[in-house]
Design brief:
3 domains, Rossmann fold, TIM Barrel, 27 strands, Immunoglobulin-like, alpha/beta, six-stranded parallel β-sheet, 677 residues, 17 helices, homotrimer
Amino acid sequence: MREIINKYPRLLHGGDYNPEQWLDSPQVLEEDIRLMKETRVNCVSLGIFSWARLEPEEGEFHFGWIRRIIDKLYENGIYTILATPTGAMPNWMTAKYEEVRQMSPEGVRNLPGRRHNFCYTSPIMRKKMKKINHELSRHLGDHPGVILWHISNEYGGNGSDASCHCPQCQQAFREWLKEKYKTLDNLNHAWWTAFWSHTYTDWSQIHSPVPNGESRLHGLNLDWKRFVSHQIQDFCMEEIRAVLKYSVLPVTTNMMEYFKPLDYFRFAPQLSIISWDNYPEWHSQKDEVNVAVRTAAWHSMMRSLKKAPFLMMESTPSIVNWKAVNTQKRPGLHELSSLQAVACGSNSVQYFQWRKSRGSSEKFHGAVVDHRNGSNTRVFREVSALGSRMEQISDTIYPTCNRPKAAIVFDWENWWAVEDIEGPRKDMAYQDTILAHFKPFWEMGIDVDFVNEDCDLQGYRLVAAPLNYLYKKGYAKKVKDYVEAGGCYVATYFSGVVDETDLCILDRHPLEELLGIRTEEMDAAPDHRVNSIGFEGKSYKTGCLREISHVIPGEGAEVLASYESDYYAGCPALTRKSYGSGRAYYLACETEEAFLKALYAGLAEENGIGTEFTGRLPYGVTVSHREGGQDLWFVQNFNEAETQMELPGTYARVEDGMELKGSITLKPFECLILAAK
Amino acid sequence: MREIINKYPRLLHGGDYNPEQWLDSPQVLEEDIRLMKETRVNCVSLGIFSWARLEPEEGEFHFGWIRRIIDKLYENGIYTILATPTGAMPNWMTAKYEEVRQMSPEGVRNLPGRRHNFCYTSPIMRKKMKKINHELSRHLGDHPGVILWHISNEYGGNGSDASCHCPQCQQAFREWLKEKYKTLDNLNHAWWTAFWSHTYTDWSQIHSPVPNGESRLHGLNLDWKRFVSHQIQDFCMEEIRAVLKYSVLPVTTNMMEYFKPLDYFRFAPQLSIISWDNYPEWHSQKDEVNVAVRTAAWHSMMRSLKKAPFLMMESTPSIVNWKAVNTQKRPGLHELSSLQAVACGSNSVQYFQWRKSRGSSEKFHGAVVDHRNGSNTRVFREVSALGSRMEQISDTIYPTCNRPKAAIVFDWENWWAVEDIEGPRKDMAYQDTILAHFKPFWEMGIDVDFVNEDCDLQGYRLVAAPLNYLYKKGYAKKVKDYVEAGGCYVATYFSGVVDETDLCILDRHPLEELLGIRTEEMDAAPDHRVNSIGFEGKSYKTGCLREISHVIPGEGAEVLASYESDYYAGCPALTRKSYGSGRAYYLACETEEAFLKALYAGLAEENGIGTEFTGRLPYGVTVSHREGGQDLWFVQNFNEAETQMELPGTYARVEDGMELKGSITLKPFECLILAAK
Amino acid sequence: MREIINKYPRLLHGGDYNPEQWLDSPQVLEEDIRLMKETRVNCVSLGIFSWARLEPEEGEFHFGWIRRIIDKLYENGIYTILATPTGAMPNWMTAKYEEVRQMSPEGVRNLPGRRHNFCYTSPIMRKKMKKINHELSRHLGDHPGVILWHISNEYGGNGSDASCHCPQCQQAFREWLKEKYKTLDNLNHAWWTAFWSHTYTDWSQIHSPVPNGESRLHGLNLDWKRFVSHQIQDFCMEEIRAVLKYSVLPVTTNMMEYFKPLDYFRFAPQLSIISWDNYPEWHSQKDEVNVAVRTAAWHSMMRSLKKAPFLMMESTPSIVNWKAVNTQKRPGLHELSSLQAVACGSNSVQYFQWRKSRGSSEKFHGAVVDHRNGSNTRVFREVSALGSRMEQISDTIYPTCNRPKAAIVFDWENWWAVEDIEGPRKDMAYQDTILAHFKPFWEMGIDVDFVNEDCDLQGYRLVAAPLNYLYKKGYAKKVKDYVEAGGCYVATYFSGVVDETDLCILDRHPLEELLGIRTEEMDAAPDHRVNSIGFEGKSYKTGCLREISHVIPGEGAEVLASYESDYYAGCPALTRKSYGSGRAYYLACETEEAFLKALYAGLAEENGIGTEFTGRLPYGVTVSHREGGQDLWFVQNFNEAETQMELPGTYARVEDGMELKGSITLKPFECLILAAK
């Protein structure tokens, strides 16, 4: 693996550190260093939200305090990830320059306060950002203790949809549209404005979608989402250029799950390494399996963005403070949850936060160091134990990464479009659909990548594209080429419905030739109208969305499953067609979990993507596979109970080389790391 | 029956047609004509939402394209209902003239976009509307293919309550109030403003009810609702005058169910024929009965508004796109649902929409022609079959109409007032109460009219007035005269409480003499305090609202049912008093369905309003009766299963004259049309 | 007892009277006098909401009409409580002076209308208030029939949180902060603004907490709540000074339950007597116990504010009109509910309202006199019977009051802070927690006072402080002194977490020495993670909040109860430590009701605070104890059924001296008033 962070090429352990809150308590800062060493913390993030300390009045910069802290950390073997401070604006700026504050869809300018609330278009904000970033870079960009730039913080995380509707954003949006469509005729056609007399006759008539204006022109909605993502990405790029003016360090920005407003696939190329903030809702359900699956999917997305290891930049060592009920992680779960990240490709376990703040809104968010009790807490002890273990495994793990043979299509533009539709049902739940298709792989211990429609599909043996409503230009051809060359492709209901501008694709489905089927209606059924499909001798319940399709005679599609009742009884629910050297599947309806499990078990076998663990994993246990230096298996037990399993071979435990084979007992929430022998 | 549409006096089959979306695809327009003929479409609605095509820039009019389409349709035997285009405003207008856009209760002017969003008071909007309507009428008002004016579209359908709170509306409201009350003293008394020191001392102090201002002065609330309905009606009248300047065609406007903001009884006189848009939620419940009842009630309202046949101007051939779950109509239900309209008095089956639009917000709303598959769809085949059947029955059906002997009072002003009350409970659910009283008639196969308090009651043998809270001036006397002359009247709990200005009527109930009872308290009971009433040897559960009344000694009321428990056990729940040649009933409380069924079965018999089918209809089956040319019975099976029934006589099937008698089997969702032999 | 209302030192019976609505109906006013005498009404409240009648145009005052009514009442033996009219502003004022209207958090100025909607800061409002109050006082402040000033009405009851966000309030807030913090450095430290770069560099940057500005700076939130309460209290004080300019009468203002925005403990000293408006939701649950407990707690709070009798200034004789379902009080409950007030220390039973208004928003709120039926209603009869009984008992009751030996800490500042926290769970439900601790006392027939953290604790044998999150300066020392001197103190989970500015108290719990325990984590558990504690041989379920603490070795705390499962099984759930002459308890978690019942039964016995009835009361029955002239017991049966009980001694019924002892039968909803023999 290419060394991204070449100053400190090891697993990182640490987290967000906010000494600016304690500058008048030097004994606290002393204690921090001591406790960090006790917990084997080797890296902290500094400067997030420090603008008011770094530039307390406009143009007056103070870097001494932060340099002294970086020095002290470095002297003690602790490296720094240095943040640009744009996550929150100082009061002097928001008071003086109104335009830096976001405007709501209702046209109301925000008052100062909170965070992540600046206008990404505002020239003044960009100017002030460049100035502070330049200064930061000039003063600290070559400090030997600084290893990575942390660009801003959780871009777009203003609690709503990240958008600003101010006049400057409106104007920038119009410019962006002009660049894209060239003429109003093109735009009017693309947005189908003849409907409801919405034809634009002047660029100035265009306004962002808002509740008290235009909100149901789906082409406009989609382009607005693209613009917002673009504008934030552009701001991020401008931040990066600013810090790189006096520095050659790698850059990252911390992402948030599948954050809907930002198309992270477009952010990835401009970053040196992907990082993200991981806050699963452990203990919120009767067991941890669904949360584990969802979290594994998030990690997999982060790894997929650059097909490379990433950093878990934030996680809580105990609880968060923003859930309805903030439950402590049970003993062992912190270590498992942290190593799950590593299992999926993370090269770090970083926390928000090192020390609980004394006041304000996150004072009850979990931290390594609490308000009371110093190092004498369960959390501190569990963090320390994990820190020691990470030191032990760092050399073995660092050179490796996961290399999946299967991929699921997850495309932000499709997401925006499919969840904005009116009909066939409300709440199309794209994420949940993706997860339903991801879970069978997790249960089989098969790592999966995510790709979007622009990615290369070659190299995967299986590609599934659930609820793939919007087909970008060239996508259908790419899929056909992929299958022709031997790939296996799974299409579902409500796919290939619209083109890039959300206009319905007329006459024929773009993959009609590939799939060999013709779809006639979509039936969205209420709960009381149950149906089922018969597949391999079993009956499986259908969900709400059910397409009614017909095999096109003579086109070669085989029916593998059919509806069992209602007026479309006998219509195909699952078909397969051989095409070139590959095969294309079509799934007509939502189904219960068990069907997808059966489907993908068959496809895994058919396409040879299973691992040696596939078929042997007990409920709640999964494996992830990092390859490279060595062949490593992370066996993760998400059961809150001891669990028996049969190993498929003989392995050495990475920490101590102990040989393991045959039947073993996993402790509650245990994560074993095994090397192939 | 008087011929309203004398250019084409037949059942209409067709729907909304939007060729302006396809002007650059002449092959689509060609295909439309071919497919229309295949489905026996004989009439389409044109021009709804075409303003931006008809007047692309201010003062620049284009009628050629639409004339060519009307010509082409007419050449192919297809007639046109021509719409005024005010349903949506073009962008040039909303951009140039701010005042045409509605203002929210919060005082925020809407941004351009959506539809139905213009200010009904704005002089500029009225001027622009008159201009386009004049031009439309002058150019196309005498085209031989145009048979009817479709004035605007779904007035008031802006998604909220149809109101605009702009300064011009405020001023118009004040003028309307001055006209009504003459002096502030009158207004202050009517609105009881001494309460909470709300006395107005200048007309300019009056403002529409808004959340951050006055919202609990119920007299103001009621007058504001009257004003909004009046203002829209006035706008409609101005549209009508504009199109009739150069045209002698009949006029209609498409209504929406019981649309609360518009008092359709006041609209009716200015229209030539009533039309409405019918979107029942089929398949949303475990069976179709309640939806069928609700839909029959809507149809009955439309027929009642002019006591004449009406047009179903819109309906979906398959699904809508705005429900939480948009379920396909099961085979047969489309035909039944369409003929239900005819059974209740409609002379048309029109669809929204002929062809699905390619983009924007309604692209997934059902249509006769889908994005793909041309005529090769189930929907297309079902529409075609219905079109053929309508051609067969048109001559027989057209001259007839329903002529009910029973009526239910449904009064918009009462609705506004009773659902605005504070106490005795939230959500007085006027519509649901009306439906509860309508359903027993539907189950007995008895057509019912709706009347408001201004209508003539003579001519009906039975009038029920559920939840008739507000008594207009003269209403009590009208009821007494009606009963005295032999009528049967049913009053319920919470009736006659207030006068026209929502002031409580003091001292005595206005119908005390007629009913012979005195009401002392209203008990609104929570769910856990069950009670029941005994009636004809059976016990029936009561609902939440329960009046505690006493028979006035010596006044002649008989107690037919009494409460069975709690502190008002023994108090009357149902009384009857003979008065003149008639009888007056008083129902003291909400009850379960079964009680109303028993009550109205008795009253139907007592008043001789049953039909030959009454008492013989299986669950889910009803009949409607159109009289005139012939005596026609529409036997409608809303069961999704074959259903046996016994015919009460010998009938001829209208389509082919086949004789039917005795026991017959109705197919799932079958509608038989029978002529008396 | 000190005579507060020395003009008429008796139990009051009457209520709000609004003759200004009926000035044009003199027969109504005549009838009122007659009916008041029939119901034994001896006191009414006049002038609430009369501003528009008293000053119909700016500077034009009309006092004749109200003087004539006071005269007439007085001639008939009916006294007047005279209100200042600021509860609602006249239209001439709101129209002319915009600044008198409140501004919403969104920065929108309210339109005229409703009530309780004036800006408490506005100089113009204060000037106009002073003028009308001066005039009122000058004209009527020495009328022999007027016995008490009723200052305004339900301060802060604008339906939201009582606050105004206008520029004048912002400025006043900043001045208030300057006075409090002196320097921005102090303020920045107290609010911990270094977090998220929120440091203020100029006073003008400070703004009230609003949704589109700063909303999560908890120190700001808390100070804003303090300011709002202060500003309203200051307005009230200014009203009081204005009426006392020409009058020496006592003053009160009618409070509302535990009205969250107003710290009633701070209002109390400036009032002569406490009064409040009591609207329990009788019949909303399966039985009346929880409503009775909640209501008893409210009454107890009112008595505690001045440790003296209070007035129940409003209550409904039947129903209110603002609940989802407004259920009639069952026979007997009105008398019980009214005497419950007296049992808890009220010297009045006053109603809202004497006569139902004819129009506007409260026309369906219950009243003694209804729109119809005159005196011939159940409600009128029950009110009359109660009036007679109150005349009988007045002399006996008046000199007495309750004198509890136990107190519960209820502190408004703690309330504001604990319900504004983010983490460990949403909705900390302070009121419900307080009630959970109050209920066991109610069930044992033990009166309890409420105290806040500023109150003297000496004099109570037991003090419980549930969920006491915020410790004011000096509070911890006061508690230690109290226990040392022999008191018994109960601390719970999540206590002593922050100081007065919501900054976490670092290092040690302020009562660590007193309690002898150390708390390590808070686990907020979802419903499916049940746990239990073992106490005195029984197992009790825990609630959501569970602290994990450890006894500090050698510090002397005994473990009385422990968790029974999960990773903190065995950790203490209840501890006790002797300290000086007293004892301190620590409760680690929320529990089911039964546990608190067992806990306080033991503590009542241990501390000798039980009464002779404790342990003998059947379900649904409680007693209250008024002492002074005689030793009086109010035995209250909240069961809607006859209930047997055993009297602990021999008593004389106050009304007639009848001797009662041994086993007796209470009628449904009966309230017996017994004197010790």
